[in-house]
Write a structure and sequence with these properties.
Layout: H1 19-31, E1 58-72, E2 77-91, E3 97-114, E4 117-138, H2 152-155, H3 158-162, E5 172-181, E6 196-209, E7 215-225, E8 233-243, E9 248-259, E10 264-276, E11 279-288, E12 294-307, H4 366-471, H5 474-480, H6 487-542
Antiparallel strand pairs: 1-2, 1-12, 2-3, 3-4, 4-5, 5-6, 6-7, 7-8, 8-9, 9-10, 10-11, 11-12
Helix pairs in contact: 4-6
């Protein structure tokens, strides 16, 4: 669970220009605090609430889902659990005030064995929904006492800087008041539970930075729930969070709850990854220490904020003027026996406020102050350049990912077009093959027709031969006929010969006509054959 500025960088691990600058910046990290933080402030992955709000005009969503198994030794049941946690938080009006809605949707599949029979039960409902207000009552980092002013001699001492001080045990304190809503006939509460009931929480939080091992946060919650109903519940949380670096953190949490309806002690372990200043991803496991029922849950989730925060409240370390400082041009602040104070110039998106304020006990040599301020200015400039470099790397990485994505899309599109072109080519080949097959079938059919035409030609030739046999040679017929002396006979003979000649001419004409038709058919057949051979040759040349 990331509480307040747990993911803020450990400045002591950075290489400073001087030991004095390192000590000063580290001390600033210890003492400067505010409700709003540059990085997201979330209650996940644990179940407790931190003392600090999300900051004025910040909307934050937190949620996750989990799976679990439960076994009850007395009831002889096995339960598979699925649940969804959700929370919506908003910084309202002032830095110290927050309104939030929290809830959980739960679904259970229960297998209960009674003798030789196994019974299955399904329960699905909202386990709880609570809306309430959280207010920071006390902040130990705000308005420090004047006797806590910085001592320049101590700044040079590592022992003085990191030694334990009892005042570090004083926590920030917040109170929470909310209203529970339970629908009628809820499967996860006792019968006749009140629809609306109050909930009160007292929250404390300690933030500690160490020299080498990162930051630590300790959160405690003391809960009084449903106090006005017949079955009130009491609970407590102790949560410890530790940052491994500026991206990773781990946590351990102990939860106790006691009521007539259900009592238990639960241990949670997990970690979180800071994806960017506004997004955190987390995971955790939970178990308990009894078997009525035994619990084992695994959950993953995320937190995201919409940052509309406009103005930071700067809580200065001891010796600095506290409160919200607004820059006024050409204004001099005069005091009896005190030197003029130059106000800090606010710089947007800079985690270290660009202000100048003197220590209460001034150094004897003014050159030390100027050197220190110059070093701070150079350090701030280096930090700003480093942030700009990181942001530019993020942008370049994002552009690289986009270009790679576009390249993959282009290759995919080209592969698709090549595949479609190949399909079209195969389709065209199939159509050509089909056309060739049709032409071959047509040629076979024509060859068959040519065979039938040859039969017709043979028939015509046979008819011609028959006509020739019937007609015979006229000269031979004349020789065979005897010479008749009778004129009448000659006349009759001449007449018959004329008729015969006429018939012969008619037969000869018919024969010539048939021969002409035969030659015409042969010519047409030859032309068609040549035409088909030419088409076939052109088709083969085209393939």
């Amino acid at each position: 669970m990331i509480k307040s500025a747990i993911f803020e960088p450990n400045l002591i691990n950075m290489i400073p220009k001087s030991m004095l600058l390192t000590v000063c910046l580290f001390l600033l990290g210890l003492t400067v605090s505010a409700q709003y933080t540059e990085k997201i402030n979330t209650n996940r992955p644990g179940s407790s609430q931190g003392a600090f709000s999300v900051g004025n005009n910040v909307l934050q969503g937190e949620g996750g889902f989990g799976f679990g198994k439960q076994k009850h030794a007395l009831l002889n049941t096995k339960t598979n659990v699925f649940y969804i946690d959700y929370a919506v938080r908003y910084g309202l009006l002032i830095e110290q005030l927050e309104i939030n809605l929290t809830g959980r949707f739960r679904s259970e599949g229960i297998k209960r064995t009674i003798g030789a029979n196994e019974e299955k039960i399904r329960k699905t409902d909202f386990e709880y929904n609570t809306i309430g207000l959280k207010y920071l009552v006390y902040d130990p980092y705000k308005n420090p006492k004047k006797n806590d002013s910085l001592d320049y001699a101590k700044l040079k001492s590592w022992k003085e800087t990191y030694k334990f001080r009892w005042k570090y045990l004083i926590p920030a304190v917040s109170i929470y008041a909310g209203v529970n809503y339970v629908n009628a006939g809820n499967a996860f509460t006792f019968a006749n539970d009140a629809t609306f009931s109050p909930k009160f929480v007292l929250m404390t939080q300690n933030n500690w930075n160490t020299s080498k091992s990162g930051s630590w946060v300790l959160v405690t919650n003391f809960i009084v729930d449903k106090i006005t109903t017949e079955n009130p519940a009491f609970g407590w949380f102790v949560t410890s969070t530790h940052t491994l670096n500026d991206k990773w953190a781990v946590f351990a949490e102990y939860q106790g709850q006691k009521s007539d309806f259900y009592s238990d002690n639960i241990l949670r372990l997990g970690g979180a990854y800071l994806f960017n200043n506004d997004l955190q991803i987390d995971a955790n496991i939970a178990t308990n220490f009894k078997d009525t029922p035994s619990i084992f849950n695994f959950s993953v989730g995320a937190s995201y904020r919409f940052d509309w925060h406009k103005k930071d409240e700067v809580i200065l370390p001891p010796g600095y003027k506290s409160g919200i400082e607004e820059v006024e041009e050409e204004e001099n602040i005069e005091g009896d026996g005190e030197e003029n104070i130059e106000e800090f110039e606010e710089e947007e998106n800079d985690s270290l406020k660009q202000e100048r304020a003197p220590f209460v006990n001034d150094f004897e040599d003014e050159s030390h102050r100027e050197a220190m301020e110059n070093d701070l200015d150079e350090r701030r400039t280096a930090e700003r350049l480093e942030r700009e470099k990181i942001e530019q790397e993020k942008v370049d990485k994002k552009n690289s990912k986009r270009s790679k994505k576009e390249e993959r899309r282009r290759l995919k599109r080209e592969a698709k077009e090549a595949k479609e072109e190949e399909k079209a080519k195969l389709k065209a080949e199939k159509e050509k093959q089909k056309m060739i097959e049709e032409i071959d079938a047509e040629l076979d059919k024509m060859e068959q027709n040519e065979g039938s035409e040859d039969d017709e030609l043979k028939k015509i030739e046979e008819e011609l031969k028959k006509l020739e046999e019937e007609t015979g040679d006229p000269q031979k017929e004349k020789e065979k006929k005897p010479v008749e002396e009778d004129v009448d006979a000659e006349y009759e003979k001449l007449k018959k010969e004329q008729e015969k000649t006429k018939k012969d001419d008619e037969k000869r004409r018919k024969k010539e006509e048939k021969e002409r038709l035969k030659e015409e058919k042969k010519r047409k057949k030859q032309e068609e054959k040549l035409k088909k051979q030419e088409e076939k040759r052109k088709k083969k040349e085209g393939n």
